[in-house]
Amino acid sequence: xxxxxxxxxEIAANRQRYEEHQKKGLEFAPRALPAPSPLPAPAxxxxxxxxxxxxxGGWYWSTALKRGEALRIDxxxxxxxxxxxxWNSGDTSERLNLVDTVKVQWTTALGKGRVIFSDMGRVMFxxxxxxxxxxxxxxGGSTAASNxxxxxxxxxxxxxxxxxxxxxxxxxxxxxxxxxxNLFAPVSVDDDGGFHWRGKLSNSGDYAExxxxxxxxxxxxxxxxxxxxxxxxxxxxxxxxxxxxxAPAVDDLSRTATAEALRGFExxxxxxx
Length: 273
What we know:
Layout: H1 8-28, E1 49-55, E2 60-65, E3 69-74, E4 82-88, H2 98-105, E5 115-117, E6 123-130, H3 144-150, H4 159-169, E7 181-183, E8 187-189, E9 195-197, E10 207-212, E11 216-221, E12 238-244, H5 253-256, H6 259-272
Antiparallel strand pairs: 1-12, 2-11, 3-10, 3-12, 4-7, 4-11, 5-6, 6-10, 8-9
């Protein structure tokens, strides 16, 4: 792909246009999102639990998820990054789109009250609980090459190969794998566009809960993040619980926090009509 050089005047005009759109978008946005969800995580009503799976360190798993159900991803012992991907189960050409998720909510800081969009402008997930607030939607996951460089001479598993296996079991190919959401990965971006790991990974017992806003297939990989500073490859198990979520309230924050979320849910309603 050819790089298009732009003049300083074009760059300045583009920035001004971006900042004008950003100002309009932020006028609707909440001035403050809720505080992180409390620790320890409250117990889920046993009658609401559909399935619980422990994903060993380095391994992967996938599950069907119906609209109105939710997933709790629980670190348990702490120190694990969990990569997540998702597809519309009725049409797998519709999938997770983190570029739009970031762009239309004007933030890379995904936390309680945010939503995660598909590439069709619909809402896939609402983030209804989150004790961590440290999630990476920009970097991607580990590969065989990145692991070989980081853990020389050590046999490891990696997120790219894990998700290729997830996709293959669903009749999909590596071209069908969307950008991944790394849960429990405190990545920041500096002014020059560089990625950095922000100190301590997370607390033991950190968790996030994602409510499904459409029927989906969700895939996970439990491998260390490429920027995780720990020189030892020793991912810990994580626990994923699928459960029936309470019906959202009329003023549910995920559905009302931004104009773009409102439009996303309108698109969902049109799909279901």
